[in-house]
Please model this.
Amino acid sequence: MNYQTVLNEIIEEVQPSLTRGKVANYIPMLAAVPATKFGMAVQSMDGETFKVGDADEAFSIQSISKLYTLTLALKDQRRALWKRVGREPSGTPFNSLVQLEYENGIPRNPFINAGAIVIADIVRSRVADCRRALLEFVRARSDNTAIENNSEVARSERETGFRNVALANFIKSFGNIDNVVDEVLDFYFYQCSLEMSCVDLAKSVFFLANGGNCPWSGEAVLNPRQTKRINAVMLTCGTYDAVGDFAFRVGMPGKSGVGGGIVAVIPNRLSVAVWSPGLNAHGNSLAGTLALELLTTKTGISIF
Amino acid sequence: MNYQTVLNEIIEEVQPSLTRGKVANYIPMLAAVPATKFGMAVQSMDGETFKVGDADEAFSIQSISKLYTLTLALKDQRRALWKRVGREPSGTPFNSLVQLEYENGIPRNPFINAGAIVIADIVRSRVADCRRALLEFVRARSDNTAIENNSEVARSERETGFRNVALANFIKSFGNIDNVVDEVLDFYFYQCSLEMSCVDLAKSVFFLANGGNCPWSGEAVLNPRQTKRINAVMLTCGTYDAVGDFAFRVGMPGKSGVGGGIVAVIPNRLSVAVWSPGLNAHGNSLAGTLALELLTTKTGISIF
Amino acid sequence: MNYQTVLNEIIEEVQPSLTRGKVANYIPMLAAVPATKFGMAVQSMDGETFKVGDADEAFSIQSISKLYTLTLALKDQRRALWKRVGREPSGTPFNSLVQLEYENGIPRNPFINAGAIVIADIVRSRVADCRRALLEFVRARSDNTAIENNSEVARSERETGFRNVALANFIKSFGNIDNVVDEVLDFYFYQCSLEMSCVDLAKSVFFLANGGNCPWSGEAVLNPRQTKRINAVMLTCGTYDAVGDFAFRVGMPGKSGVGGGIVAVIPNRLSVAVWSPGLNAHGNSLAGTLALELLTTKTGISIF
Amino acid sequence: MNYQTVLNEIIEEVQPSLTRGKVANYIPMLAAVPATKFGMAVQSMDGETFKVGDADEAFSIQSISKLYTLTLALKDQRRALWKRVGREPSGTPFNSLVQLEYENGIPRNPFINAGAIVIADIVRSRVADCRRALLEFVRARSDNTAIENNSEVARSERETGFRNVALANFIKSFGNIDNVVDEVLDFYFYQCSLEMSCVDLAKSVFFLANGGNCPWSGEAVLNPRQTKRINAVMLTCGTYDAVGDFAFRVGMPGKSGVGGGIVAVIPNRLSVAVWSPGLNAHGNSLAGTLALELLTTKTGISIF
Model:
């Protein structure tokens, strides 16, 4: 398969869609990103990286980071983890808090904010310097030691993130957070403020397409069974309340972020990352979703 | 792959689990089915059918029928269908009615009861004799002209199905049912009362593993794109409020019924059906889910 | 107190408000009522009836009838009744169905539709000819044998009342309706289609201001304790999801109907009925609520 | 009316009920209060104070304080206040958070925790030293300069009140809190930790039975219209999710606290306070509610 040709076609076809989405504006630094940015990178099984557009430009990965912290938590904890967070899709956005109440502080899955906060709490309890551990994990997965976080983004989110503070305290009231709430949130906002490029991101999730193995570090990040399971959770829970639509149109396990990035994998075939800041009504990158749909259409590759 | 060996192992291993589930008892004829029944059938790409246990015994397929009516509706209507029913997982069972209210009578997906009732309404509007059309469709897909419905089961469900009557009238109050409610429900209870064996069921969904083509009838039931999409909807919505857990453990698109049957497919590899009447807390066959999990574990086949 | 002077002032002051409300239009016969109709009648403790405007014109009493069926049910059943229906306000309209689900088919109070349907079921189980019994009860309370129901209104509501059919079947699914759903709904739609004037209505609820005694029939309808309690339920549940606002502004126990009527009482002082078809956002008569507020302001009478 | 005789009878009759309730135990200082404590005080229109049992012993008033802060907020702000907090009953406890979400951060009424936090924010914005202002208000209303708060109770609630922190941050995320969340909560936990006796409490709310006038301070605390309206809000919202039951059984506007206290008024007749630490399932004092019911039964006084 000539992925480069496919990527070249895709960037042409998505141009009219770039400005149809709405760039996140709840913090100044996200609002300042031009809607016309577009990058995409594919990492194939034979070790090649294909890329197009702004694929080397770092941007705010936001919720994509939930995939890394979940992996870190799973490496350590495994079964016990699923007692503290579910693995079912969350239904309507409307339900987030009522479901927490109905289900006694157990978030529905690790990819909604509530669940990611619990995962952050788990990682914080296990790892002495959790920020450093996460940064090293991400750098190793991406084969790029230059990756950093943006502390101004973290601070902005911290100052305006009242709803996340509410979520964390609500979960704490059910006893499902062990550490001090402020410290858990500091780590949570840290992870969201990491900045990576499409090339970094595509490489970083390649182990999920590769049975858990990371070729450049030579590390078995997860075993094959864990790998399949993370992919399953991504498919059913990775794109907010649009998982059904994403599976229907794209047909890959994927995880999106409010910065406009999406990562996805097709097991034993490829990993991919795309970036377009304009979001659709569900909070997923509008042109990014379209680009992934074009990728599956043009290559005929799908898990279904 | 020697599927027969695998099936022989599975039936041994699930024995202790057969009586751990709870047989549906809301109507007498379902309650009367022995919990010890177990059957399983695999239809492979090269045309072979493998089977074990009670795989030739017909049982009440119940909600598995929603897959057939959705296929019938999709053949005719396509895009318009998705304006009347969503394709997102439903969240907690608790939310079924509140979501209908919140979302103005548009059911979340075609596999919850509310959605299947809308699909039944769509089929009823398009096809003169919808019962006959459905029966012929099912017989053609299963290559078995002996398949019938059980009118006593249909009548029992009709007499006690107050919640479905409530759902249908509630949807009608939003204008999302065109026909007379009683006629739609008659068709709905008819479809649920069809009786098929594991062999019938495995054959009947083989087209979903085969790009939409049904070998024994020679018919292109759906095109490849529609086929992928039905599989995606099955994966994200096919097993009630346990879709995340089912994807996590089994990793196949599947559809279950309260009679204890489950059908599933792995695209380009196989279709499978399993039957064990005891249900888990989510209403899916307990030993049936385990059997499918064993199938993926033993064969290493998975979409993830 | 010269109530006639007060009524004369009120009808002047509400004129600009008559057309600010929205006349119910879900059935043709309600939609056809002119928004400019306005009537009001006060029944004082010394036996005098004061009236103004269209106070002698009969209109569709709709949900005001729930007060009569509750009284009938209470006469017979008392404590057992409160096991089948609560007496708490219902919160947002949004919650009607979810609360029924959460609270196992026990409606929150007898004045929401769900609760009134259960009350209709109770009356139907106790009284052989429940329509006749209700009609005789209403005629005796109003001292007017000419009161009738409007069968065309009942038929219209029956044909379009899918949401009430849904509610009744949903409650039945929890076992909280004993009779056949259709028969219960026939009685329910019958009661809503009664037609009475403001004079009829003010007289009909006078027993609630008078310790349970109906002067013109000489009957002790309820004992003083039951009377106080019905008034309490009216105050906390009688005006849909606007009970707080109604208590805040009007300060009387009252019951409204979608036909634009409201009845209210001040214990040991007066009973009152008002009619203006235009409804506010909560489904209560807009000018009718204002008229009652003016009555308490001008007379200084209030329970608070 | 000889209220002393009535109180003497009541304390006898409630004895068997004192230990049937459940003393609040979420903080140690509340858990330590003996369930056998019982006090009651009536303040009559002619200036006499009647009391029985532990009526002079100060206890933690908790949510009763919401009545004082609402009065303070109403004195200053009036209409604008009702744009930031509703005046409708809250429905089931289950709904607190979902209703906040559904209604964009506007709490249903000033007596649920969410509403009281908004009121605390309003008072904090208006009054320089809000703690001092509240303390002086309470002392003046009770004619007792010895009233204090318990700083250990405030600290305990602060340390364990994760749910209130969640509520406050959630409301802040909708823009309905102006001050820094921690400062608003400090004031909120301060008000809840005030300690008063039944005699203090009965005197403190006497102005609500007396058209807004406080005899011992000679101050017109509220005008008659405001007074009626606070009483209306108390009746429809003052006793958590048991307002209907409380109105049905007791028939007085009242406000309860988790410390086991309840205050109530009958306009132009009396104010009353009762204390019994054991709570019923709704969080209201079990024997306290019974004592108020006995008071209305024995005296025949009721607003209905």
The interface with chain D takes residues 94-95, 97-98, 101-102, 162-163, 165-170, 172-173, 181 of chain A (CB under 8 Å). The two ends of chain A are 19 Å apart (CA to CA). Chain A has a mean pLDDT of 94. The longest helix of chain A spans residues 113-126.
